[in-house]
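Collaborator request, handled under Task 6.
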Amino acid sequence: MENNEQKNEMTAQQSLNIISEMINDSRRTILQSSAKHFILWGSLLIFVSLVVYGLWQSSGSPVWNVVWFVMPALGFPIVRILDRKDSDIPQSKINMNIGLIWLTYCIFAVCISVIAMLWVPMNLTLVLVVIFGFAQCVSGFILKNWTIIVSGFILGIGGAVAASLLFGPEQLLIFTIGGIMLVVTGLIIKSQYK
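Structure tokens returned to the collaborator:
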């Protein structure tokens, strides 16, 4: 009888180990996929911020900020292509929540940008960098990854301070730094979860 209970106990422990291993594998797969997204959006952010900075700096006109709308127009189709390649990754609540966080950020960024351009002038860089850092932190908490959390805090809080101290096209360099941080975060995650 006692031997039979030990078998059942070991089976329960083995079951817990298998479940734990499956959860860790799923988390690793999601982080690997997220790394690609961090690298993609970071690269786009660097590229677009430098283009807008250069155009604004050379012309003296902030009208070039409309180029920012190219970023989602380029990014979302590329994400679709990347996600098709990862079609074997099981869709989970974590994937969905991360996607919804960044979709929400995008909607806020576009709406606030349009409001700032057409109706209520504001320090748009400050607002966008704070919600950007917040979205990154929340993503990090959901993924339980300190690299993402810390870079989100640095970007959101440091970016807010920088946006208060810089003016004109120089504020765009905050987004360039943010893009670099995203790319570095993606590369760190990629190296951690090979």
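The cover message to the collaborator said: "Residues 2-192 form one domain. DSSP finds six helices and no strands in the chain. Please let us know whether this matches your experimental observations."
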